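Hello,

I think I submitted the nicotinamide-adenine-dinucleotide job twice by accident. Can you confirm which output corresponds to this input? Input:
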Amino acid sequence: MENILVTGGAGFIGSSFVKLMLDLHPDYKIINIDVLTYAGNLETLKTVSDNPNYIFIKVDIRDREKVDEIFSTYKIDTVVNFAAESHVDRSIEEPEIFLSTNVIGTQVLLDVAKKHWKVNPEDKYCREYKSGVKFLQVSTDEVYGSLGKTGMFVETMSLMPNSPYSASKASADMVVRAYHETFGMPINITRCSNNYGPYQFPEKLIPLMINSCLKEKKLPVYGDGMQIRDWLHVSDHCTGIDTVLHKGRDGEIYNIGGNNEKANIEIVKLIIKTLGKSENLITYVKDRPGHDRRYAIDNTKITTELGWNPKYNFDQGMKDTLSWYLNNTEWIENIVSGDYTKYYEKMYANSSEKNNEIDNQK
Ligand code: NAD
Ligand code: DAU
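Support: Only one job matched these inputs. Its output is below.
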């Protein structure tokens, strides 16, 4: 492993992974390709932009020609595919881009990797690959669907995605698996739970609530706020991916999670309390259509087989995250762009209830 193509490396998790890899593995070259959608932000990477082992290229993963050129130029031997449309609410507004980027984009990367990595790319029966190559697909626990009050997601479960976003991620997982089964492509798939930490785009629950709370705006809690997510610090997700990259058995899927289930309302109240604001800011709004009730990751496979464990305890992780946002209000202001505002207006346009709440915040 020498030349790693990280896709979507200007996003929340990808940027954290790029920094971790440059730190942990000074002998690797990291080639970051990202098309810089509203969610991509090079500001997040400014501390590594001069690192001689780091290269950024603005490319759409669906652009076969450019991706092919990058494989040739940089002798790519590893792909870690983060690039995706990642926000469930946006996927309800505009499903098509999710299918296009998350499924077709992944297939283009697989195809180009196959061409460059197969010992004999012309032979469709050839299952021999150059030594040390791997395609790692960064997936999500949402592909499993929603849990009842008990039980946890295990890797062998059948997939039951409920949103256009999770359906697109599940489809991508299936395509990655198919390239392994049909063409012998060396792959791993990781499925992680909800991430939190610095540099997360403020349309996701935790940064949205922090940002709104600081401005004393209403805090829109969907439905009854009792939906449960299993939270993991972004650094722990990245060490999990690094572990699977180096130790994961070929063709295997690994869940990544830290056994940390919290109801949304608990998170919102924790933020309010830590920031010394009033719970009167909480506003219950209409529920997300098809809203998954509970996620919980069983991490036995990665912890026992590969020896990975999360480092962050949630309380400390949240304290650090909150203080990061308090010290980096400029970062948030810079990215709360016109584009984001337009999305927000559209998202609430069809619900008079939500619309009123949002109007009240202005
Ligand atoms: P993000 O939205 O912050 O970042 C996605 C990045 O992908 C952005 O930089 C964007 O510009 C880029 N991108 C989008 N379309 C592209 C395209 N066509 N070509 C090239 N780049 C493109 O997302 P994130 O939260 O960092 O998530 C990264 C990955 O991890 C996603 O695949 C997501 O499904 C998965 N994941 C996220 C979480 C989470 O809690 N955020 C949990 C588990 C898995
Ligand atoms: O589980 C992993 C997934 O976690 C990732 O695959 C996705 O990319 C990531 O976006 C995240 O999806 P969620 O839908 O769980 O995250 P989000 O931050 O959008 O919402 C978290 C919970 O909070 C969810 O139950 C919806 C709720 N919520 C969210 C927002 C933005 C609210 O109640 N109010 C809000 O304003």
